[in-house]
Amino acid sequence: MHSEIWTRLSEMRDAGALMEIDALVWDVCNTPAERVIWDSREQYLQGCQPGSQIVAGMGDRICGYLGFKPPTPLPSNGHVYELNIAVHPDYQGCGVGHRLMDAIKAVATERGIRKLSLRVLSSNAGAMAFYRSCGFTEQGRLVDEFYLNGQYVDDVLMWRKV
């Protein structure tokens, strides 16, 4: 099924599908932020501008996305992309996440990016295993950074070279 997955940079027309994925994926188990509910397509596009994500799909359906941006506006930090990824629950385990990671490595290489980084909750063992399978390693840990579902959770910082 991996060969049937396509990727491309996000476009304005993707907003509805990406908003749906956000509503289905993000919850207290995988993000310390309040659940993302976009008020409108326009609000979504202001926060997630076209071209700031790679989308993956099968056929005519968008199945997931990977957002990327420099972690700060500093020129000295411009060689790094900070990532966030979400895959529609119906397509998790089908290779969409790996295809997105392959795509960001290609985009990063083209743009001269040397480092990819991300953050993941220590309680999200599945995500941590996925990131490790993509070549990410732990570069730091903010111990007991969040209090979620009645327990303290570490914020794990992970990275990989492009």
TrEMBL record:
Domain N-acetyltransferase: 5-162
Pfam families, per the entry: Acetyltransf_1 (PF00583)
Enzyme Commission number(s) of this protein: 2.3.-.-
Alphabetized UniProt keyword annotations: Acyltransferase, Transferase
UniProt GO molecular function: acyltransferase activity
PANTHER family on file: AMINOALKYLPHOSPHONATE N-ACETYLTRANSFERASE-RELATED-RELATED (PTHR43877)
Protein name as annotated: GNAT family N-acetyltransferase
